[in-house]
Design goal:
Layout (H helix, E strand, L loop, with lengths): L1 H89 L15 E4 H4 L9 H18 L8 E9 L6 H20 L8 H8 L2 E5 L15 H4 L1 E8 L2 H12 L1
Parallel strand pairs: 2-3
Antiparallel strand pairs: 1-4, 2-4
Helix pairs in contact: 1-3, 1-7
Length: 249
Amino acid sequence: MRGKHRREEEETSYWLSYSDMMAALLLIFILIISFTLLQSQTVYEEKENELIAQKELVEEQQEQLEEQQEQLDKLIGIRKELIEALKQEFEGSDLSVAVDSKTGSIALDSSILFDSGQFSLKNTGEDLLKKFLPKYIKVLTSQEFKDYVSEIIIEGHTDSTGSYLFNLELSQKRALSVSSFCLDTEKNVLSQAQVDGLRKIVTANGKSFSNPVLDANGRENQNASRRVEFLFRLKDEEMINDMSQILNE
């Protein structure tokens, strides 16, 4: 009887130990499942937040692109209007000047402005500028366009005769001579207010023969290459050009 009772106690103890072990394993399993679910929930929430942030970023970028496109369209429209205004200003005048339909640049013949190889303005050059400048500045500084023009550039250009450095110096001095004439109040070509405004935005550059004028056969037209160009730049134009390229892509 004692042996039988002992065996029953041992069997009962065995099953109790086995049940405890299974309960512990089940608890561990439940903990693992719970931890996995919790971790998955955390990852899901993080991904969801990332998607929301990315969506907000995309929407913000879309709004910026739309604003930039509007600004681009506006500046393109301003340039076209300014070029058209320049054409109308010089149309019917006795000045033989042509306004570039794309850039709005105007080239003045160097043979009228200077003697060959010289950079001092001739009388014919001064007479040309006295007629040209009031009309040109009138358009660019008008109420319609003055808030958009950031720079007026006077560029000297030569033909390819001679060295590059000689022509670089010559073209620079010619551009400076023209800009000096523009800013000289004693010439009484422009008003004091126009000169004061012009001083803030005018620049003079020498280009040597780096940008020649070519004929239909691709050969240099030396007469046309010798010139002084008047160009204008609109505010934020470089940024707009980069933006235009991005939008096109």
